[in-house]
Every structure is written in structure tokens, then in C-alpha cells.
Amino acid sequence: MKKNFLAAFTIAAVVAAGTATALAWTAPGGGITGSRHDINAYAKQNTDGLTVQADSQERVCAFCHTPHHAYDPAANNADYLPLWSHELTKKNYAPYASDSLQASIGDPLIGPSRLCMSCHDGVVAIDTHYTNASETSTTAAQLTGDIFSQKDSEHGAVGANDSLISDHPIGFNYIDAKTADKNAGGKLKQGIREETATFMGNVAGVAIKDVLHLGTTMTCASCHDVHNKDNVASTVTDASGTTKDSGMNYFVYAPQNGSQLCLTCHDK
Ligand code: HEC
Ligand code: HEC
Ligand code: HEC
Ligand code: HEC
To answer: Which of 43, 60, 231, 232 could serve as 52's disulfide partner, Cβ 3.0–4.6 Å?
Structure first.
């Protein structure tokens, strides 16, 4: 048990551990219903000890989208809110930086990344959406944090300490970075591939350009498929040559074995 867990979560986690049941998430590529991004399913079967409230009508999309009265991008200082219903993160993040980076990062949360951080910021409750009573509740179901800020106390969650310095760069123009990389010399050359390359092992044939926001910008959604449609299985082969599911998913567009995800974009 990590020592800096909030006391309330520690108690809840202990209770949950005693009642843990086998998880039955849908397979990679199986779509959003029943995936970890189906908050109703998460409410029913999560073992993280969080109090998550299902939607009163068990709608799946509603935690993120709504057909009416969605958040207005202009009023919320955001560039991309596709009929968005989930309370937005109020945090700003320092971008990734390094001596060898060619990419030029403006707002790191440009495009869908801000939407991801609306749940993965560790502050906004994951069950918060426009008609959910818990949004305004001051009693039980309102989460004050989420699993991502508590799971790994040593390294922190994605975007820990309001900084993306420990996270793969996002929020830059891929095409420009690729061109700068082509012109770079020696060790600075990172082997960034053409955006027309398809993700290795992705049967749907998803190409890098398909997952760049507006065809250019690298975001969280350039590696992760939030709707779990084009995500791929992650398998491992043991010493006897038996191939089995690794048990990890992560919604990524290319298999993790052999780091096919990374090698899709980096010629290393
Ligand atoms: C966990 C949050 C979440 C849920 C639940 C969710 N979406 Fe999305 N949706 C997103 C995000 C984030 C984006 C932006 C992703 C991107 O640009 O790749 C998006 C984008 C979209 C888009 C526009 C761009 C695209 O990728 O097609 C459509 C249409 C869409 N969602 C439909 C749906 C429908 C229909 C459902 C329910 C069956 C659903 N979504 C459930 C988060 C969600
Ligand atoms: C409505 C809230 C919500 C939004 C919006 C959201 N997520 Fe999630 N995400 C969750 C929850 C809940 C889980 C399950 C947590 C767990 O299993 O520990 C999760 C899990 C994940 C996982 C881990 C999956 C696994 O197999 O362990 C990844 C990766 C992820 N989300 C990426 C994203 C990205 C990228 C976006 C934006 C494109 C996004 N999420 C938007 C709530 C959200
Ligand atoms: C370059 C690809 C890439 C980008 C961009 C990316 N991720 Fe990931 N992410 C991964 C991979 C791969 C994993 C699986 C864990 C691993 O291999 O270490 C992962 C794991 C995760 C997890 C699971 C828990 C954890 O911390 O390991 C979450 C949540 C997550 N990512 C969210 C995000 C969010 C939010 C963004 C944008 C701010 C983002 N990712 C951007 C590749 C990426
Ligand atoms: C969708 C394409 C894409 C995927 C997938 C991807 N990367 Fe990257 N990565 C890039 C681009 C583009 C850059 C920016 C390179 C630059 O501008 O110098 C980058 C930057 C990096 C950097 C920082 C380099 C520096 O100079 O600081 C590292 C390290 C890296 N990636 C490793 C990985 C690893 C490991 C994976 C797999 C988990 C991965 N990448 C997956 C496109 C990708």
C-alpha cells in the first residue's frame, strides 16, 4: 500500500480488495461499451476502491458527449470540444522539453488532449457529466481525485505535478517535427517516419496521419484510441512458445510487444 494514498481511498481500497471479482472488460478493438472507458462498467466492476456512480439511464457516451447543451469551446478557452459533456480540467501543464527535441510545443493540451486530462488530471471526478447528480453533490459519490493521481506515488500519474515533462511530447506539429528531424544531423536525427505509415499490427490499417489532430498535431489520441475501436491486442510469448494476452491493454493503436507502437513512428 502506497503511503501517500489519501486516507479515505486507502480504507475504500482495502474494502474493495476483499470483494474483488474477476474483471470482464471488452477485448481490445471491441468498441467503447464494456471497455475501461465505459464509466457504467467501471462503476460496476472497478477494484480501485473509488466510488463511481453509473449514469441514471446507463448511457455510455453521456459521460463524455451530449446531443444538447454541450460545453461551448469559446466560453471555455478550448479549441476542440466535440459535443463535450464532461467537466473540463482547470489545470494548465508545463510541456515536455529536452535538448534533442526538434518539435515546437505550443499549448501542450491542444486538440483532444484537454479532453483526456478532464478525467486523467486526478481532480475532476470521472463520473462527472452534465446530468449526473454527483456533479453538484456534496455527499458521497463525488470523487475528489482519481486513480491516476494515486496509483504510482513514486512516479506520479500522466501529467503529475501539473507537468508533462515526464510524458511523451504532445501538442506539436508532427509534419514540421518530421521535416526538422530530416534536416537534423548526427545523433539529433530521431528517424521520424512519414505520416502515411500505418500502425504496425493494426488490422484496421490506421495510419499516423489519421490520428494527428486536424491531420497535423500530435496528441494523447495519436497513441491511444479512446473509443477502443482500433486498439490492438497486446500479446506475449512465454518460454514454451505459447502466445497469450499480456493482460494489459492501454488502448494503444499498435501492439506493445517488440514496441511496435514506438517503431511505427520512430525508425530505430
Ligand atoms: C471516455 C470519454 C468518451 C466516451 C465515453 C465517448 N467518447 Fe467520443 N470522443 C472522446 C474524445 C476524447 C474524442 C476526441 C478524440 C479524438 O479526436 O481522437 C471523441 C470524439 C468523438 C467523435 C468525433 C471524432 C471521432 O473520433 O469520430 C465522435 C463522433 C464521438 N466521439 C462519438 C462517440 C459516441 C457515439 C460515443 C458513445 C458510443 C462516444 N463517443 C463515447 C471521448 C469519449
Ligand atoms: C470520462 C472520463 C475519461 C476520459 C474523458 C478519458 N478517460 Fe481514460 N480512463 C478513464 C477511466 C475511468 C479509466 C480506467 C481506470 C483504470 O482502469 O485504472 C481509464 C483508463 C485509461 C487508460 C488505461 C487503460 C488500461 O487498459 O489500463 C488509458 C491509456 C486512457 N484511459 C487514456 C485516455 C486518453 C488518451 C483519453 C483521451 C483521448 C482518455 N483516456 C479520456 C476515464 C477517462
Ligand atoms: C507516444 C505515445 C503516447 C502518447 C502521446 C500518450 N501515451 Fe499514454 N501510454 C502510452 C503507452 C505505450 C502506454 C502503456 C504503458 C507503457 O508502455 O509504459 C500508456 C499508458 C497510459 C495510461 C495508463 C497508466 C499509466 O500511467 O501508465 C494512461 C492513463 C495514459 N497513457 C494516458 C495518456 C494521456 C492522458 C496522454 C496525453 C496527455 C497520453 N497518454 C499520451 C503511449 C502514449
Ligand atoms: C504517433 C507517432 C509516435 C509514436 C507512436 C511514438 N512517438 Fe516518440 N515521438 C514522436 C515524435 C514526432 C517526436 C518528436 C521528435 C522531435 O521533434 O525531435 C517524438 C519524441 C520522442 C522522444 C523524445 C526525444 C527527445 O529528443 O527528447 C522519445 C524518447 C520518444 N519519442 C520515444 C518514444 C517511445 C519509447 C515510443 C513508444 C512508447 C514512442 N516514442 C511512440 C512520434 C511518436
So the answer is: 43
